[in-house]
């Protein structure tokens, strides 16, 4: 499981599928809600039309038994007087809920066929003792029903109180909607009910409740839900499949890069390069960066190999010379060249120190953070050297005093080696930089060789002996130290015609 979902391809597919699934769920819920609301509103409009048609007939003094909306083909209809008594209802109505009253048997105060007689419902009922008991029980039941009736949705008590009194023959402008169920001719269904008030001429204030079936709404919602339950999983699966395929194609170059890198690691052949796709996306840039890294690594390794080879060659000469002198001295003590042995030992010591410093610089050793005055340092290094002049102003830099002294010493040794008479040292400020310049009056450095002389073990004068010219590490060490201190070391032409070395470091 961890291996399956540990790949970018798997995580991208899972993430895209989850996002699409959530979006489909939210969209489906919104669509179902909108569909249900629209169809319910349509049923409410239909019910309102029926209720207002019956109210219009009542306003026109139509008897209860002649109301067109009470036929068997119409939906459930109830007419309730202002006392809450059911005075008229649909013919086949057997059970109802969600309206003003759940009674289905009309109990008009007077015969429904005589409008004039129904004007005073309270005076029409025979005063029989049994009927009075039943009426008391009915009134109690109606009170209970009114207490437990669910509030109708689109009318508030404030709205009902704010509506002006209706004139005889006038129908109320407000419509109250509610949802419920009804059973007609043994068929039970859900309905949307609309209630409308009407002020009659002879029967007082009546409330007409009419219902419209919600079967279409239920059917449409079920159909839409079925389509979503079938279609949404298929759509999510399609998205997952497409994401898997597209991600696989997009990551195919990454697999090629990984395989080539594994082959390079196994073969240790740094000349090989990873394939670069022809696109201009992040993977192509990754491949180019990888090849640049391999090229830099190849250069570094090659440089290290040359360094080891040159160091071995440079070390071999003083060691062989010292060994020869010691062997001769062992066989013929009177032939011992003590000065030569000491000189070879000192040269070997200096070469070992240079190699050790270069190794530390290559390892990324950072200089210590101390303040160094280049003017004072220049005077100290120039002291005791013949033909060296100093013209310096105070300029403090941050870094290692020992390494900076090594740089200045190497530059002075190089200048004395090539100068005819004098070497001049100057220190000045230029903006936020301190500039230390060492110039000689020698032959100078050809422009084509001005970068080459900073390479390790490079000596431009091939005829010069190693004893006179050194191992060719001084300028390489000087530039590496300058770079580690955040500065630069360059060579140009001096005013006197010789070489001019300029060390630029940031001021402390």
Question: Could you describe the 3D structure shown?
Answer:
This protein is an alpha+beta fold and 508 residues long. It folds into three domains: 183 residues, Beta-Lactamase (2-Layer Sandwich); 96 residues, Orthogonal Bundle (Helix Hairpins), CATH 1.10.287; 140 residues, Histidine kinase-like ATPase, C-terminal domain (Heat Shock Protein 90, 2-Layer Sandwich). Helix content is 49%, strand content 18%. The chain contains ten helices and 14 strands. Strand 13 and strand 14 form a beta hairpin. Helix 5 packs antiparallel against helix 6 and helix 6 runs parallel beside helix 10. The longest helix is centred in the middle third of the chain and has 53 residues. The protein is rod-shaped and about 155 Å long.
Describe this structure in a few short sentences.
The protein folds into three domains: 30-122 and 131-220, Beta-Lactamase (2-Layer Sandwich); 270-365, Orthogonal Bundle (Helix Hairpins); 367-506, Heat Shock Protein 90. It is 49% helix and 18% strand. It contains ten helices and 14 strands.
Features:
508 residues; alpha+beta; Beta-Lactamase; Helix Hairpins; Heat Shock Protein 90; seven-stranded antiparallel beta sheet; five-stranded mixed beta sheet; 10 helices; 18% strand; rod-shaped
Secondary-structure blueprint:
Elements (H helix, E strand, L loop, with lengths): L7 H52 L17 E5 L4 E4 L3 E5 L31 H20 L8 H6 L7 E2 L4 E9 L2 E13 L5 E9 L1 H53 L14 H50 L6 H25 L7 E4 H9 L5 E5 L3 E4 L1 H18 L4 E8 L2 E8 L25 H4 L4 H11 L3 E6 L5 E8 L2
Parallel strand pairs: 9-11
Antiparallel strand pairs: 1-2, 1-7, 3-5, 4-6, 5-6, 6-7, 8-10, 11-12, 12-14, 13-14
Helix pairs in contact: 1-4, 5-6, 6-10, 7-8, 8-10
């Amino acid at each position: 499981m961890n291996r399956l979902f540990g790949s970018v391809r798997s995580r991208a597919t899972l993430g895209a599928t989850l996002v699409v699934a959530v979006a489909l769920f939210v969209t489906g819920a919104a669509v179902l809600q909108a569909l249900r609301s629209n169809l319910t509103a349509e049923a409410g409009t239909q019910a309102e039309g029926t209720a207002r048609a019956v109210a219009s007939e009542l306003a026109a003094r139509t008897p209860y038994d002649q109301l067109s909306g009470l036929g068997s083909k119409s939906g459930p209809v109830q007419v309730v007087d202002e006392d809450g008594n059911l005075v008229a209802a649909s013919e086949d109505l057997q059970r109802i809920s969600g309206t003003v009253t759940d009674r289905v048997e009309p109990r008009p105060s007077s015969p429904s066929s005589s409008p004039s007689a129904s004007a005073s419902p309270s005076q029409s009922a025979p005063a029989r003792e049994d009927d009075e008991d039943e009426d008391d029980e009915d009134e109690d039941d109606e009170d209970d029903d009114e207490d437990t009736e669910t509030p109708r949705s689109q009318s508030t008590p404030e709205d009902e109180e704010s509506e002006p009194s209706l004139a005889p023959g006038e129908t109320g402008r407000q419509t109250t909607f509610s949802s419920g169920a009804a059973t007609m001719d043994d068929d039970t269904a859900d309905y949307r009910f609309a209630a409308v008030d009407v002020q009659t001429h002879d029967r007082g204030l009546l409330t007409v409740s009419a219902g419209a079936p919600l079967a279409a709404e239920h059917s449409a919602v079920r159909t839409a839900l079925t389509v979503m339950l079938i279609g949404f999983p298929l759509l999510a699966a399609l998205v997952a499949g497409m994401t898997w395929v597209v991600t696989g194609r997009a990551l195919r170059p990454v697999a090629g890069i990984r395989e080539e890198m594994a082959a390079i690691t196994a073969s240790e052949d740094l000349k090989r390069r990873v394939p670069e796709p022809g696109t201009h996306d992040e993977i192509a840039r990754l491949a180019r960066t990888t090849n640049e890294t391999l090229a830099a690594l190849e250069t570094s390794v090659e440089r290290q190999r040359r360094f080891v080879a040159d160091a071995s060659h440079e070390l071999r000469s003083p060691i062989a010379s010292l060994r020869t002198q010691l062997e001769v001295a062992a066989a013929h003590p009177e032939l011992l060249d003590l000065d030569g042995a000491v000189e070879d030992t000192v040269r070997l010591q200096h070469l070992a120190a240079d190699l050790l410093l270069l190794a530390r610089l290559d390892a990324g050793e950072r200089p210590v953070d101390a303040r160094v005055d280049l003017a004072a340092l220049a005077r100290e290094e120039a002291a005791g050297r013949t033909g060296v002049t100093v013209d310096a102003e105070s300029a403090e830099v941050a870094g290692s005093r020992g390494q900076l002294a090594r740089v200045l010493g190497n530059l002075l040794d190089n200048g004395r080696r090539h100068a005819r008479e004098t070497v001049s040292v100057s220190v000045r400020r230029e903006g936020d930089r301190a500039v230390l310049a060492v110039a000689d009056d020698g032959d100078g450095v050809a422009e084509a060789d001005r970068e080459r002389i900073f390479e390790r073990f490079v000596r431009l004068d091939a005829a010069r002996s190693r004893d006179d010219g050194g191992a060719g590490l001084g300028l390489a060490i000087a530039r590496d130290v300058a770079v580690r201190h955040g500065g630069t070391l360059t060579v140009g032409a001096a005013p006197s015609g010789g070489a001019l070395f300029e060390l630029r470091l940031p001021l402390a």
